[in-house]
Every structure is written in structure tokens, then in C-alpha cells.
Amino acid sequence: MAETIAILSQKGGTGKTTLTRSLAHGLGIAGLNVLTVDADPQGNLSEYYGIPADTFPTLGEVLTGTESALEAIHSGVIPANLGLAEAELILAGRMGRELTLRNALRDIAPNYDVILIDCPPTLGLLTVNALVAADRAVLSTEAEHFSRQGAEQAVEVIGLARENLNPDLELMGVLLNIADMRTRHARETLEGLKQQYGELVFETVIRRSIAYPESAQAGKSIFDFDRRRSIDYARLTEEVLARMGLEEELAKARTTTSSLDSRPDGRAHRDRTPRKRISPTEGKGRPATARSEWAWVEADGPSISPTPGDSGSLR
Ligand SMILES: Nc1ncnc2c1ncn2[C@@H]1O[C@H](COP(=O)(O)OP(=O)(O)O)[C@@H](O)[C@H]1O
Ligand SMILES: [Mg+2]
Prior knowledge:
Radius of gyration: 20 Å
CATH topology of the largest domain: Rossmann fold
Strand order of the largest sheet: 3-2-4-1-5-6
Order of helices and strands: EHEHHEHHEHEHEHHHHHH
Bound molecules: adenosine-5'-diphosphate, magnesium ion
CATH superfamily of the largest domain: P-loop containing nucleotide triphosphate hydrolases
Mean pLDDT: 87
CATH architecture of the largest domain: 3-Layer(aba) Sandwich
Number of domains: 2
Strand content: 5-15%
């Protein structure tokens, strides 16, 4: 029976869809049979998988009850398109509207180990359906102040879903996503999250890299698009497997991570080593390695600029 995980945040652009696609691939490499569900009418996840927008049936038909979830699976994905917005409106007028996705997924859950649901950027009926269908929720938050406030709202909604509709729902973790950890603001956001959510915050931070939008454009997961940059998601996959208590798969995931972490000659990639160009005043008293450990060393030249106003410069 699949473990169902809802990926959510209170707004768009926090990396949910990229997280869903990348984690699905990471869990797949670890040997799990994964289904992903696109619960966002924008259909970004479906597009990321290269599923044509006119594919039929989709989640919209599943939720309105005209097609089964089994029929709506296309290459391991239940896709969505704008029709899902209409389906949400139809659903809103029905009895048991919050339970629709859970009931729809029940028949196919035994066929999978994990079902990942990519939520829309609002905390509306589709997200509530995802939270009711899910065993666990993962919260994606960007490294900025307003995102943290939003994370609080999302945690509240998870609490409400648990109290009223799905007592078994657990918050699996809070992920700091699309982060440029060379900025003080991002590091403070991480500290703030840790103070608020403690061990729920994943140790892995998904660093900002242009490779992600490029991978979306190419319709490939980061593991296929840029092996070296997939290290963050490889580490996150490990953490998720550990939190799920799946020892065998965790061992497999560790092998993947170490293969990404080392060059063919067995030496560690440079992104784990201190950068040389850090000025002595850099970091205001922090050891230079504390911030340099976050930096990508770009093979194709530095593509990430420190945020204006952030102390120090890496160049
Ligand atoms: N780690 C990352 N670094 C840089 N850009 C990212 C990263 N993760 C996602 N993105 C990009 O940010 C944008 C929003 O990400 P997306 O996954 O679509 O977020 P959401 O589903 O929350 O709206 C997309 O263009 C995506 O390619
Ligand atoms: Mg999205």
C-alpha cells in the first residue's frame, strides 16, 4: 500500500513542482515504485514530464467522477490541465468534496510504494483534497521572510486537516528550497525555520541553480539533466527515506549519493571544498568555510550573484 505524500506551500514559485519531480526520481532510483499526481491546474508537473496538455483523462475527470484514477495514469503520472480548475468548482458543490481524491486513489494505492501529490499554490479545496488523501505532508519554502510567514499558514492548514478530516496526517518535514545560502538572509531564514520547527526542518537545503529551470525546459529531471547538481535532491531523498523508515532503499540511495559526490578518480567534487576567492573580510567573523560550503563551483562560470545588500562578495 502506497505511502502518500502531499507537497505543498502557501504560494507559487517555492519549488514544489521541481521537488515533486526530483524526489519522485530519487525515490525511483532507490527502488520504489512511485506515482506522481499533478493537483495544480497550471499543469506544470505534467509539462515537466513532457505529457501533452490535451492528454485525456486527467485528474479533473477523476475528481468529477467520470473516469477512474487507473485510467488517468500516463507514464507514472496523473496529469492535470486547466480543466482541473473547472473540476474544482464542480467539486465545491458536492457532498464529501474533501474526500474525493482520497477515495479515487484508494484503488490504485496498492500498486505503488509512494504517491507524491504536487499541490497548487493556494490552500484551497485541491490542497485540502491532497492533505486528506495524504499520510504525510512536505512543506517547501523559499529562503525569504514572507515565505516563512506563509509556511506558518500552511502548517496551520495541515493542523486543521488533521483535526477535522485526516487524523493520521503527519508533517514529514519542512524544506528550504531555491536557496542562495551565500546570502545572510537565506542563512537567517534557515536558522529561523530551525528554531520554529526544530528537527522537522530537513538538513538538506536545495540550493538555487539555473540547472533547474533548464531541466524543466528540457523536460528532464535534475538527475538526468545535470548529474552533479542532483546532489541536493539525492541527499534529500536519503532524508525522506530515513523519515519513512525504509532502510533497504536508504542504503541504495546512499550509494547513489556517494557516486554523485565523488569524481571518477574517487576525489570529492569541488563544491564540498572551500572556495579560494573569499576575501578576509567575508562573512563578518564567520569562518570562510561556513558559507563557502554552500556554494556551487560552476564548471561553466559563476551564475549566481549574492543578493544586493548582503554582506561581502564572493567574487
Ligand atoms: N533549486 C532551484 N534553483 C533555481 N530555480 C529553481 C529551483 N527549483 C525550482 N526552480 C525554478 O523556480 C521556478 C518555480 O519552481 P516550481 O517548482 O515550479 O515551484 P512551484 O511549483 O512551487 O510553483 C521554476 O522556474 C523552477 O524551474
Ligand atoms: Mg507548481
